[in-house]
Design a protein that fits this description.
mainly beta; binds zinc ion
């Protein structure tokens, strides 16, 4: 594969399992798969429930709020596509639904990020197909 055919890492390929996520993201909503039989949330996208092995899964919109479980700040880009964004913070966010999700954490100084910080999702439109979830400090409700 040559560089000119290389798809930007900011434009992930939409898999059949993940299509529901990307469809919701285009509409500015975070969706997770949920088992119709045992009600477990499933992440990463799958064809079966990892708790009861049911094949009856539905995409369900979730609130998109959670807390920082862990994070790191990238000061040196590992790929040229990310060079314009350094420094950026990547966080493991534990959603209120119990699912851990990796995302960029924005709108906060890297030195101010803390474990347990409350965060909320928003979407950055990359193309007609792709809107990427990002998290930022939560507004009080
Ligand atoms: Zn299940």
């Amino acid at each position: 594969m040559t560089a000119e055919h290389r798809r930007s890492p900011l434009e992930p390929t939409i898999s059949r399992q993940g299509a529901g996520h990307w469809s919701a993201a285009r509409q500015g909503r975070l969706a997770l798969q949920r088992c119709d039989d045992c009600s477990s949330y499933i992440f990463y996208p799958s064809f079966i429930c990892d708790q009861c092995l049911s094949e009856h899964l539905s995409w369900t919109a979730v609130e998109g709020r959670g807390a920082v479980e862990s994070f790191t700040t990238v000061y040196r880009s590992f790929a040229e596509e990310f060079a314009p964004y350094v420094p950026y913070t990547v966080a493991l966010v534990k959603l209120r639904e119990g699912v851990n999700l990796l995302s960029w954490l924005v709108d906060v100084d890297p030195d101010s990020v803390e474990i347990g910080m409350e965060v909320e999702v928003f979407f950055e439109r990359i193309s007609d197909e792709i809107s990427l979830h990002r998290f930022r400090p939560a507004t009080k409700v």
